[in-house]
Write a structure and sequence with these properties.
alpha/beta; Rossmann fold; five-stranded parallel beta sheet
């Protein structure tokens, strides 16, 4: 594979002399979390999804993917075995400092987020990158980007964490990471004006620390309804929408202008 064109690659994989800033439409960064996702999905589920979306973007546009830690900010499941948490200050600073350095390569940055608790910090970091470093930054959390699709594809009436939607996406993209024999319906959290259920419109934010217990699986949803066909529909819609987003931003072909 030739790297004479800086696009379509990962920054850590190429020699510095092959970085051609004038040939980059934008940069992409994937971020997620390392936290429990029930007994059937890996701890790195959020990052794996964001990373896969970034790979799809790399295939379609002249971009470089920036390296980033799979660890994110975890509040809700911080006391579960395997969950890793970094402070809000550290996470925000990492995004800003990496983005500021990368601005020397290209001023446009697409941040793909796989973990909802990162989102408010990413918005703050994006604002700082725009204000202090003159960058153009767009941030999205994948489930929010295709919330309407998740609602139409998923049969379950509650879907919050490691449920039908995410498990379906894994069965399509990463079937080798799914422990099928461990899949079962999880806990249902009733939703109202304050809820994290994707099938409900959020009107108030109610942070809750959920602790492990002998009877708890860590699943909030119904992954037993998941299948690869649903995952394929979610994946197709997701990649289509990301492509539309890039074109809406007028970033495709930006390097040539």
């Amino acid at each position: 594979m030739s790297y004479t064109l800086a696009g379509n690659g990962v920054l850590t994989d190429i020699p510095w002399v092959d970085i051609k800033s004038s040939q980059l439409d934008f940069l992409v960064l994937a971020t997620g979390s390392v936290e429990q996702h029930g007994p059937h999905l890996p701890l790195g589920a959020d990052y794996l999804v964001a990373e896969r979306i970034a790979q799809e973007v790399v295939r379609r546009f002249s971009v470089l993917q920036l390296p980033f830690t799979p660890v994110g900010v975890n509040f809700m499941f911080q006391n579960w075995a395997g969950t890793l948490n970094i402070s809000a200050e550290t996470y925000t600073k990492l995004i800003v400092e990496i983005g500021a350095n990368a601005a020397k390569i290209c001023p446009r940055l697409l941040i793909i987020n796989g973990h909802d608790e990162n989102q408010p910090l990413l918005l703050t970091a994006a604002q700082q990158l725009v204000t202090d470093y003159g960058m153009e930054v767009v941030v999205f959390e994948w489930a929010e980007l295709v919330l309407d699709i998740l609602r139409s594809v998923c049969e379950s009436k509650y879907e919050m964490h490691a449920g039908e939607g995410l498990t379906s996406l894994f069965l399509h993209w990463f079937p080798q990471h799914v422990r099928m024999e461990r899949i079962k319906e999880g806990t249902q959290i009733s939703g109202g004006l304050a809820s994290n259920d994707i099938h409900l419109d959020h009107r108030a934010y109610n942070p809750r620390l959920i602790n492990p217990s002998p009877e708890a699986s860590g699943v909030f949803g119904n992954p037993s309804l998941a299948n690869a066909e649903k995952g394929a529909k979610i994946s197709e819609a997701l990649i289509k929408r990301v492509t539309e987003l890039v074109r809406e931003l007028n970033w495709e072909g930006a390097a040539a202008r």
